């Protein structure tokens, strides 16, 4: 479709159908511009749906319900075309006249658009790469945040080794984040809040289960302090222990958690039934791949580089290509949703400016 | 999306697939750049080699044969069956090697025990030995875990510091030696690991009933840790694969225990100035925990200090009534026994302290007969019939 001046394609391409992509596509549509959303998976909703999140931080609403309502609203919008099971394989052109080749199940398709929003998101850090000895791949009862989310969603928190409900569970913070050795020096922002939320949910499911959180320092942004952190301690009796866990080992049918209690200034060993690793965020394979295909700069961690921070968070190094959500770096859902809206505004205004210029 | 989360999780955990990260920078490129710049000669791994994966996913080449044996001071002095077993296996598999007489100690003992020496001296000794190997045309194979780890640290320093390379160059010039850096620094346990299937193919003793615990050596996998061998099929790629890999290939029952990550207790400084600490740590933190949690028939490890500390500390703990008494040996001796080596003429287990005789019986070895054969051999030496034991004698 050509724009008013027959120069500019009045269509925005959104790549990625997670919360940021959904928010961006919705906003583009609401602004009266056609939008095509390309998603590599066979469903919309992104990581919260793919990884079976039970609920969203901080309000604990069911993830499927909240994200599902975004998806339904988008699908009912007239200006929105959703292309699933598809990936952008090539990209060329200028702002206002981009051409993306999209590999779809029914063959390759050429898609003309005036601007693009990258919302390809993150992936959870793989704890097998951790510097510390956490034994994720060795011990069934060492799990990650998203594994516990899936259990909570299924309504049954159980030790993978024997199916029994755990009596002692601990969370280990900053796994794959704030780690110079691995090269991830950044904080992943959400893990402290998500771990605290999950800790509360474990206590609600299993009132007799003792729950501990081992942390370097708790980073509860904004209102999360009062929404999650204090209730976790005061109402749900989660035990926060300042310290660094260095290794997790099998000891009989328990897990021996070893580390340093930095408040007491001494080494610490304690037995747990289940250990939850609070894994951080890394760029998704899609973010890395699309950065290459679209030719936009990435930062040293592989996330999309924001071209003009701090006040313009959505422009990339390539004019006409914008980014939103966790493709730009660790982000919570609020940031993803609002970033999607900001990217949509910029993507639409870029097209309209070109159209107006004739 | 709706499958049972525990099944999904357990399926996911079956295979760890490493992705490159900030630690995965491969040093080889820099080694060859310095050769291009005329700074040194790179001793290339022979064409007949096996490629294995290291901790962060880089490839390491392990040569099969034509090896220059960089021996270990402690092995030769305290556990001679250790190095003899390595030589014996190599001969049995038909690989040629050089047993040099002009190799020096790496001197890392000084460095780790008392912080004496200095970077230039340490690096000069390393490159002096590398040059000696290069002159023979044989590729260096390091027996000692400490030498191996230390040489890798030295390599890191040399790669980063031109001033250190200049200092070393001056020292080597006085010795009449060239600056040589091997393409890979290879430990003997890596060679055994890479050739484990070849070794298992000529195994003559059944080890399926032998319960094994493995003590991985700190100086093997904690120094320049990215260059140690890891395998996603062994411990899910979360612990080094050497030693365990060959024990499994030989059909042994490898058992885990909770203090596997801990030092053997040797500690270098501790064995010199706080020996009681070494004895306590080796037994109470390692051997007793293994006995309690895994009940092994034998402890396998792959470094000089580890074999000595774990083995020779047990007598003191036994005197205090502790639950000890597990034989300790290198995986080289274990593999040699699997291939049919003589327990005394080759593996020289009589140098070991903890009682190994029940283990030999479980392996199907008549240790009394073997000891009688060894005594006959000694008689020949005492009678002046022979000056030393030959390779022909050990297989007689």
Protein model, in words:
Chain A is an alpha/beta fold. Chain A has 2 domains: 11-121 and 284-357, FAD/NAD(P)-binding domain; 126-280, FAD/NAD(P)-binding domain (3-Layer(bba) Sandwich), CATH 3.50.50. Chain A has 8 helices and 19 strands. Chain A has helices at residues 19-30, 47-50, 63-75, 145-154, 191-205, 224-234, 285-294, 333-357, and strands at 11-15, 34-38, 55-56, 61-62, 80-83, 87-94, 97-104, 107-113, 115-118, 122-124, 142-144, 168-175, 210-215, 239-251, 254-261, 266-272, 274-279, 281-283, 321-323. By secondary structure, chain B is of the alpha/beta class. Chain B folds into 2 domains: 40-188, Glutathione S-transferase Yfyf (Class Pi), Chain A, domain 2 (Up-down Bundle); 202-372, Rossmann fold, CATH 3.40.50. Helices cover 47% and strands 10% of the residues of chain B. Chain B has 20 helices and 11 strands. In chain B, the strands form 4 sheets. In chain B, strands 9-8-10-11 form a 4-stranded parallel sheet. In chain B, strands 5-4-6 form a 3-stranded parallel sheet. Chain B has a two-stranded parallel ribbon with strand order 1-7. The longest helix of chain B is centred in the C-terminal third of the chain and has 19 residues, at 275-293. The model of chain B has no long low-confidence stretch (mean pLDDT 94). The A-B interface holds A 43, 49-50, 52, 126, 128-129, 133, 135-138, 140, 143, 147, 150-151, 153-154, 158, 160, 163, 181-184, 247, 249-252, 256 and B 1-2, 4-6, 8-10, 13, 16-19, 21-23, 235-239, 256, 258-261, 293.
Low-confidence stretches of chain B: none
Q: What assembly state would you assign to the polypeptide chains in this entry?
A: heterodimer
Largest interface: A-B, 32 and 27 residues
Low-pLDDT residue spans of chain A: 1-5
Structural class of chain A: alpha/beta
Report the top-level CATH class of the largest domain in chain A.
Alpha Beta
Number of strands of chain B: 11
Shape of chain B: globular
Shape-level CATH architecture of the largest domain in chain B: 3-Layer(aba) Sandwich
Gap between N and C termini of chain A, in Å? 16 Å
Class by alpha and beta content of chain B: alpha/beta
How big is the Rg of chain B? 22 Å
Rounded average pLDDT of chain A: 94
Please work out how many helical segments of chain B DSSP would assign: 20
């Amino acid at each position: 479709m050509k724009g008013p001046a027959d120069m500019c394609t009045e269509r925005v391409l959104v790549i990625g159908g997670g919360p940021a992509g959904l928010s961006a596509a919705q906003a583009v549509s609401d602004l009266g511009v056609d939008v095509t959303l390309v998603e590599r998976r066979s469903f919309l909703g992104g990581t919260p749906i793919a990884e079976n999140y039970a609920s969203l931080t901080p309000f604990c609403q069911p993830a499927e319900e909240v994200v599902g309502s975004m998806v339904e609203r988008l699908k009912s919008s007239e200006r929105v075309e959703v292309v699933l099971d598809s990936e952008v394989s090539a990209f060329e052109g200028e702002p206002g006249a981009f051409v993306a080749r999209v590999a779809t199940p029914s063959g390759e398709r050429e898609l003309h658009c005036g601007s693009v929003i990258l919302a390809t998101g993150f992936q959870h850090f793989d704890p097998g790469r951790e510097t510390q000895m956490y034994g994720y791949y060795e011990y069934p009862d060492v799990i990650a945040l998203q594994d516990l989310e899936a259990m909570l969603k299924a309504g049954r928190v159980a030790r993978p080794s024997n199916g029994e409900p755990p009596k002692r569970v601990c969370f280990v913070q900053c796994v794959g984040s704030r780690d110079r050795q691995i090269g991830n020096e950044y904080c992943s922002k959400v893990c402290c809040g998500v771990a605290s939320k999950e800790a509360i949910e474990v206590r609600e499911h299993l009132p007799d289960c003792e729950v501990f959180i081992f942390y370097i320092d708790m980073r509860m942004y904004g209102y999360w302090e009062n929404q999650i952190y204090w209730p976790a301690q005061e109402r749900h009796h989660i035990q926060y222990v300042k310290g660094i866990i260095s290794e997790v080992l099998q000891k009989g049918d328990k897990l021996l958690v070893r580390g340093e209690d930095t408040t007491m200034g001494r080494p610490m060993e304690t037995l747990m039934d289940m250990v939850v690793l609070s894994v951080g965020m890394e760029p998704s394979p899609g973010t890395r791949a699309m950065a290459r295909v679209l030719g936009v700069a990435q930062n040293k961690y592989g996330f999309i580089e924001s071209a003009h921070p701090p006040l313009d968070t959505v422009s990339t190094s390539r004019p006409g290509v914008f980014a939103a959500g966790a493709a730009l770096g660790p982000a919570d859902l609020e940031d993803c949703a609002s970033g999607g809206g900001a990217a949509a505004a910029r993507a639409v205004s870029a097209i309209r400016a070109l159209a107006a210029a004739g | 999306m709706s499958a049972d989360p525990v099944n999904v999780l357990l399926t996911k955990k079956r295979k760890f697939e490493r992705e490159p990260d900030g630690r995965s920078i491969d040093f080889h490129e820099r080694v060859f750049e310095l050769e291009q710049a005329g700074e040194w000669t790179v001793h290339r791994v022979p064409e007949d080699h096996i490629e294995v994966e290291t901790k962060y996913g880089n490839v390491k080449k392990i040569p099969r044969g034509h090896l220059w044996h960089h021996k270990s001071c402690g092995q030769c002095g305290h556990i001679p069956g250790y190095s003899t077993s390595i030589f014996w296996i190599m001969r049995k598999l038909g690989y040629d090697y050089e047993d040099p007489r002009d190799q020096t100690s790496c001197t890392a003992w000084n460095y780790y025990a008392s912080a004496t020496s200095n970077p230039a001296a340490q690096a000069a000794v390393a490159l002096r030995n590398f040059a000696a190997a290069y002159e023979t045309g044989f590729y260096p194979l390091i027996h000692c875990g400490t030498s191996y780890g230390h040489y890798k640290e030295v390599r890191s320093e040399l790669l980063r510091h031109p001033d250190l390379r200049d200092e070393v160059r001056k020292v080597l010039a006085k010795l009449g030696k060239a600056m040589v850096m091997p393409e890979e620094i290879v430990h003997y346990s890596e060679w055994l690991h890479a050739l484990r299937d070849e070794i298992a193919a000529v195994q003559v003793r059944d080890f399926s009933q032998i319960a094994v615990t493995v003590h991985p050596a700190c100086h093997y996998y904690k120094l320049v840790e990215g260059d140690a061998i890891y395998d996603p099929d062994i411990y899910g790629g979360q612990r080094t694969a050497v030693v365990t890999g060959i024990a499994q290939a030989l059909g042994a029952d490898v058992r885990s225990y909770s203090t596997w990550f801990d030092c053997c207790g040797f500690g270098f400084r501790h064995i010199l100035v706080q020996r009681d600490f070494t004895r306590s740590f080796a037994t109470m933190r390692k051997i007793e925990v293994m006995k309690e949690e895994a009940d092994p028939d034998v402890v396998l490890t792959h470094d000089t200090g580890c074999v000595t500390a774990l083995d020779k500390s047990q007598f003191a703990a036994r005197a205090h009534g502790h639950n000890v008494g597990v034989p300790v040996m290198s995986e080289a001796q274990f593999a040699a026994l699997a291939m049919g080596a003589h327990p005394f003429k080759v593996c020289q287990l009589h140098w070991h302290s903890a009682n190994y005789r029940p283990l030999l019986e479980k392996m199907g070895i008549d240790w009394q007969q073997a000891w009688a054969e060894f005594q006959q051999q000694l008689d020949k030496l005492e009678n002046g019939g022979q000056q030393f034991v030959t390779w022909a004698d050990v297989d007689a």
